[in-house]
Write a structure and sequence with these properties.
The complex is a heterodimer of chains A (about 220) and B (about 350). Chain A is built from 11 helices and no strands. Chain A is mainly alpha-helical and about 220 residues long. Chain A has a single domain, classed as MetI-like fold. The N and C termini of chain A lie far apart (about 50 Å). Chain B is an alpha/beta fold. Chain B is elongated, with a radius of gyration of 24 Å. The chains are: A mainly alpha (about 220), B alpha/beta (about 350). The interface between A and B is medium-sized, with 21 and 30 residues.
């Protein structure tokens, strides 16, 4: 056991965990907001939405499909220039953020639309009959009534982001993926490889646990 | 007053659906106005045009003289706040408590928090949901959910209450209690209630006036009593016949002839203007006939008992039979010899 631990540079490991958490949480917050925003727009402009608009809906739909179609490993390479432009470097945790956000936002947008479609049309009709404005319908009815699906989608998104950060790590953004690949795999250090993997699994479990707890609290259906 | 002036509504699609084909109708203030018709008759569309959840393809809908289809977005939202609506499936928000659901229309109307609490508490007491304020809709029964719906619809003190099949998802007993609540609201708050349904027994219990719809048209408008006494349109006849309990009269007649060869089968129709005295008992006592009730379907409407009853007279002669019939006729019961 001691021998096993001796092979691990604790400081580098903690640093890697921090980087993973940093990349995941920042990109998570951004993609939730951007995704929710695009999701609301997609829902509103859909054929029976509150602001039905075929052209805007089709354009957004296509952008989302294209972004979702590009594998993340390729997307991050394509976005090297953008990352350099925004962050001044193509390496490091911050440099990975644009690619993570651009990859995750469309995914969450799509999940939001599914959540909104599930909201009872009758409830929306009832709020209309009470004289609610579209703004009020979105924030007081649509989002609260979709909240359970929105939270469970958010946990799926967070877990996807954790694995994206590992891919980004292999390309040079730091974090547990980087640590596992560079210090574990490349140098034949299995202790590092397995410990990193274990920690990633732990983070995923924590995310899932928090999400289950929140859903249990808010689901009154 | 709500007034429809030659309203048409067509839903465009692969096959256009003509939901309303020229409806003209006046609904006076303070009435409980029933709209009855089978599925697809256009009742739902009619009621949704009142608060502009649907707009009409042509024609006008006026509320107190104001054309609803020409209102701006803001005017329409303000107008809607004065028109409550309740639904077949209640359409409550699962994410809000009973209290918060009823509070919602007040939030929309920008009522102050302190005022909102006061109004919601009054409404909860009125619909009889005391103690359930902080429950969620999912924890309540259908009848209780509809009570939340009613309280919510009344929050902004509307002049009109629209009921879209409001009792169709409820069992008969709960239906009765909801109808009583609606009736007392109509009397206490002097609200015009427009209720659409496919259940005759619902409209006849509390409606002052009924419009019968078929194929996007209003085919007959009258009081419950008049509709029942002489229904003109076929659809009306089908609805009022349902109240007779769909008696297979020929079969009953044959069976009875075997038991009472000299008996006589009668159909007695009560149309509401009979007195509350025990007419049948008194008549039987005086005529000394053996009268058996074969089938009866009498219900109460706001105009008194209405419905039909089939009785068989036996062990008497032609004079006593005639006496029996005359006495009943004098009491306002219409008698048909079968």
């Amino acid at each position: 056991m001691i021998q096993f631990l001796e092979k691990i540079d604790i400081e580098a490991l903690i640093n890697a965990v921090n980087e993973t958490l940093y990349m995941t949480s920042i990109s998570f917050v951004f993609s939730i907001f951007i995704g929710l925003f695009i999701g609301v727009l997609l829902y509103l402009t859909s054929s029976d939405g509150l602001y039905s608009n075929k052209i805007i809906n089709k354009i957004m739909d296509m952008i989302i499909n294209v972004l979702r179609a590009i594998p993340f490993a390729i997307l991050i390479i394509i976005l090297f220039d953008l990352a350099t432009l925004l962050t001044g470097s193509m390496l490091g945790a911050t440099a990975a953020l644009p690619a993570l956000i651009i990859a995750a936002s469309p995914v969450y947008a799509r999940m939001c639309v599914i959540a909104f479609i599930e909201v009872d049309k009758g409830t929306i009709e009832a709020s209309k009959s009470m004289g609610a404005s579209n703004f009020e319908i979105i924030f007081k009815v649509l989002i609260p009534e979709a909240s359970v699906a929105l939270v469970s989608s958010a946990s799926v998104l967070a877990i996807s982001l954790i694995s994206y950060t590992a891919i980004a790590g292999v390309i040079g953004s730091g974090g547990l993926g980087n640590y596992a690949y560079l210090y574990g795999f490349s140098r034949g250090n299995n202790a590092v490889l397995y410990t990193s993997t274990f920690l990633i699994v732990v983070i995923v479990f924590v995310v899932q646990f928090v999400s289950d707890y929140v859903i249990k609290k808010i689901d009154k259906r | 007053m709500i007034e429809f002036k030659n309203v048409y509504k067509t839903f465009k699609g692969k096959n256009d659906i003509h939901a309303l084909n020229g409806v003209s109708l006046k609904i006076d203030d303070g009435l409980i106005y029933g709209v009855i018709g089978y599925s697809g008759a256009g009742k739902s569309t009619l009621v949704r045009i009142i608060n502009q959840l649907e707009n009409c393809s042509s024609g006008e809908v006026l509320i107190d003289g104001i054309d609803q289809s020409n209102l701006s977005g803001k005017q329409l939202r303000e107008s809607r706040q004065k028109i409550g609506m309740i639904f077949q499936h209640f359409n409550l928000m699962w994410s809000r408590t009973v209290f918060e659901n009823i509070e919602f229309p007040l939030e929309i109307a920008k009522v102050k928090k302190s005022e909102r609490i006061k109004i919601v508490n009054e409404l909860i007491a009125m619909v009889g949901l005391n103690g359930r304020e902080f429950s969620y809709p999912s924890e309540l029964s259908g009848g209780q959910k509809q009570r939340i719906g009613i309280a919510r619809a009344l929050a902004n003190n509307p002049k009109i209450l629209l009921c879209d099949e409001a009792t169709s998802a409820l069992d008969p007993e709960t239906t009765d209690s909801i109808l009583q609540l609606l009736q007392s609201i109509n009397q206490k708050m002097n609200i015009t209630i427009v209720m659409i349904t496919h259940q005759m027994e619902v409209v006849q219990k509390i409606c002052h006036k009924i419009a019968v719809m078929s194929d996007g048209k209003v085919v007959e408008v009258n009081t419950v009593k008049e509709l029942f006494e002489n229904p003109k349109h076929d659809v009306t006849k089908r609805f009022t016949q349902n109240l007779d309990g769909n008696v297979k009269i020929e079969q009953i007649k044959k069976e009875l002839k075997d038991i009472y060869p000299f008996g006589q089968l009668l159909k007695l129709t009560f149309t509401g203007n009979t007195s509350s005295r025990p007419i049948l008992a008194e008549t039987i006592r005086q005529c000394k006939l053996d009268v058996s009730i074969v089938n009866s379907n009498i219900t109460h409407s706001i105009e008194g008992p209405i419905g039909a009853m089939y009785v068989n007279m036996a062990n008497g002669d032609a004079t006593s039979y005639q006496q029996f019939i005359d006495m009943l006729k004098n009491e306002g019961v219409s008698v048909e010899i079968l």
